[in-house]
Design a protein that fits this description.
The chain is α+β, with helices and mostly antiparallel strands. About 25% of the residues lie in helices and about 35% in strands. A four-stranded mixed β-sheet has the order 3-2-1-4, with helices on one face. The two termini are about 20 Å apart.
Amino acid sequence: NISLSEEQLARLQKGAELSNEKGIKESLVLMDDFAFIVNTQNNTVITAMEQEKQGENIFTNIDGAVFV
């Protein structure tokens, strides 16, 4: 139930592209009040959440992070 603007979608895509360029396979992309786990090889968002609802703020099975 997360709605993103066109600008936010473009930033998320840029974060995934930057991650892929650096060889990151499972990336945490942090943007505004959202956190996304992105599989950069498939260009697929695996998990999306609002930061206020993250609870313990623990992310596993990632090999890099990007702030956009």
